[in-house]
Amino acid sequence: MISNSYVENYIKMHEDGEILLNKERIDLINYLKTHILTRDDIFFDEQKIENFISFSEKWYFPLDNWEKFIAPFIFLYYKENGELFYEEFYITMGRGGGKNGFISTLSNFFISPLHGIKNYDVSIVANSEKQAKRSFDEVFNAIEGNAKLEGNFEAWKAKIIGKSTNSVFEYQTSNAKTKDGGREGCVIYDEIHEYEDRQVVDVFSGGLGKVPNPREFFIGTNGFVRGGFYDKLEERCKAVLSGENLDDHIFPFICKLDSAEEVNDVKNWEKANPAFEKPLSPRSKRLFNKVKKQFDALKNNPSGRSAFMTKRMNLPEVDLEKVVAPWEEILATNREMPYLKHRSCIGGFDYASIKDFAAVGLLFRVDEDYIWKTHSFARKEYLDMANLKPPIKEWEELGLLTVVDEPSIDPRHVVNWFVEMRKEYGIQKVIGDNFRMDLLRPLFEEEGFELEIIKNPRAAHSLLAPRIESAFANQHIIFGDNPLMNWYTNNVAVKIKPDGNKEYLKKDEHRRKTDGFQAFVHALWRADEIENVDYGEALEFLNGLKF
Predict the structure, then answer these.
(1) How many CB atoms lie within 10 A of CB 251?
(2) Nearest Cα to Cα of residue 96 among 301, 297, 289, 302
(3) What pairing do the DSSP bridges indicate for beta strands 167-173 and 159-162?
(4) Quick one: pLDDT at residue 536?
(5) Residue 13: which of 29, 33, 36, 27 has the closest Cα?
(6) What is the pLDDT, as a whole number, of residue 319?
(7) Are 373 and 361 in contact (CB under 8 A)?
(8) Exposed, middle or buried by CB within 10 Å (0-12, 13-18, 19+), for 113?
(9) SS3 category, 323
(10) Which domains does the chain show, CATH number per domain?
(11) In angstroms, rounded to a whole number, what is the distance separating the alpha carbons of residues 373 and 482?
């Protein structure tokens, strides 16, 4: 058994009802009480914990209870070899909660003689130089003009040096292409909600392990990028909190509302922002008043609600009138596909933009489920110029798309894909809209496919919208494990026309491709015609007949 007074105090405050915690932090406490505090092979370094808290409160500001709760786990070690138990920390909360201030004090402490590790460099990484410099400037300003601190630290505009440890604190922007792994002891990743993948993390973490006690901190507030690094990190953390993956030593401190309805009672706001825990400090009072004014303003400006919920309450709330489905419903399509060989299906394709992407697919019906087997083609020159953030190369390796090096995507790629699929599936017909049909029609007819053209795709969108919304909501759509299809779907903007009908457009004309979703919609146009026939069984029956 291990214990620490700051940890015990925070748990007691929760159990006594003095603070209101969200589900993830309650899960964190239960996880710690069950799986961590009961161990006897690890220990809290009480001296380092006290040194850090004293250092922070002397030179910066009084630490909040949540900061004192996390601090002991930063200095939690194995008894056997003195290595860290937690090397990764995930801290996410509503904007203004104080996570950057906490990181500032930690960064300064890590390069100090109180931490005592030679060459323990600290880098803070963010998407913009302005954001990356926030904590750096806070440390710089604390040192400059303070004789005692200047005796231990040398502060320059681009880096701060701990004199006795020769450790350097500096800021970096997250351009992975211009950075090689250094010899960092600690890397802090800010604004992680903007990371499309883990490329930046992989680059900057390359220097870790060259000095003792390597640490990584991932901090931020939720954002509008779905399926990116933030979402995957949160999924990983929830597997830890549930006990599903106890071998993953990441410390997840997640603050958010448990539901959107909770925003209407200001007492719940401390679930998303621990700065609002009672009693409020003067800084917290100012922040609360500002957030309250923003919330009240939503009555006259409801369009600002999505940003308020995401940034202040750390709970993304999509406008269901502007998206095909919430992200959770899109993720629910990631189910294993049933056995489909020889089953009948409807083909769909989207070949509107021959200079960038094209998509093809087969739509099956099994009971109430729509199963979509799809593939895409992307033009190499476009990918090189567009520099899209999603992991296109990874998707190519998974076999979800083919990159072609051509002036435009050859229409024969589209037709040949259906020819290959016809060897295993019963394709009743193939459907597309009227774009580029002069190129495609003769090729399809030559191969003997029945081809149907949707002459008014916008009218088709309006008619299909209720079916699509219902299918997503009731989890009757199966894409398999297909992040490319998730990306396509999440890129769709739903436009409600004056007559109330809906139309599926792109959120961004150049960087948010929707080809796979549009091909899916085309196939749905004739979903009711899919015959519930297994051609494999029919062939076996015919082969068994004796004439």
Answers:
(1) 22
(2) 289
(3) antiparallel
(4) 55
(5) 29
(6) 63
(7) yes
(8) middle
(9) strand
(10) 5-261 (3.40.50.300), 327-529 (3.30.420.240)
(11) 9
**What would the pLDDT profile of 194-243 be if each residue is shown by its tens digit?**
887 888 888 888 878 889 999 999 999 998 777 788 888 999 999 999 98
pLDDT for 542: 42
Confidence of residue 32 (pLDDT cuts 50, 70, 90): very high
Residue 465 CB contacts under 8 Å (≥ 6 apart), including other chains: 494, 501, 502
The C-alpha atoms of residue 202 and residue 391 are separated, in whole angstroms, by 14
Q: Supply the pLDDT for residue 547.
A: 46
Q: Quick check: bond before 279 cis, omega within 30?
A: yes
User: What tens digit of pLDDT does each residue of 516-540 get?
Assistant: 999 999 999 999 999 766 655 554 5
Report the pLDDT value the prediction gives residue 131, as an integer from 0 to 100.
87
What pLDDT digit, counting tens, does each position of 253-265 carry? 999 999 999 999 9
What kind and span of H or E run contains 155? strand 153-155
Q: What is the mean pLDDT of the chain?
A: 90
- Residue 50 tokens read as 């006290």
CA distance 178 to 199: 12
Cα distances (angstroms) measured from residue 482 to each of 335, 375, 399, 417, 469: 9, 10, 10, 18, 19
Describe the chain by its helix, strand, coil percentages, rounded to 5: 45, 20, 35
Q: How confident is the model at residue 182 (pLDDT cuts 50, 70, 90)?
A: low
DSSP string for residues in 411-457: HHHHHHHHHHHTTTSEEEEEEEESTTHHHHHHHHHHTT--EEEES-H
What whole-number distance in Å separates Cα of residue 34 and Cα of residue 471? 40
Whether the predicted pLDDT of 268 surpasses 90: yes
Which pLDDT score, from 0 to 100, does residue 535 have? 55
Host H or E run for residue 458: helix 457-473
Short-list 472, 473, 443, 480, CA closest to 362: 480
Model pLDDT for residues 87-124, shown as the tens digit of each residue: 999 999 999 999 999 999 999 999 999 999 999 999 99
pLDDT at 4: 97
pLDDT tens digits, 425-479? 999 999 998 777 878 899 999 999 999 999 888 889 989 998 999 999 999 999 9
With left for phi above 0 and alpha for psi between -120 and 50, is residue 241 left, alpha or beta?
alpha
E strand or H helix at 289, and its extent? helix 282-297
Q: What 3-state DSSP class applies to 206? A: helix
Q: Is the CB of residue 167 less than 8 Å from the CB of residue 120?
A: yes
Closest CA to 44 of 15, 87, 85: 85
Task: Name the DSSP class of 279.
Answer: S
Alpha helices in 114-246 (DSSP H): 129-143, 147-150, 199-204, 229-241
pLDDT at site 66: 96
Q: Which residues of 383-422 are buried (b: 16+ CB within 10 A; e: fewer)?
A: beeeebebbbeebbeeebbebeeeebbbbebbbebbeebb
| Cβ proximity of 262 and 270 under 8 Å | no
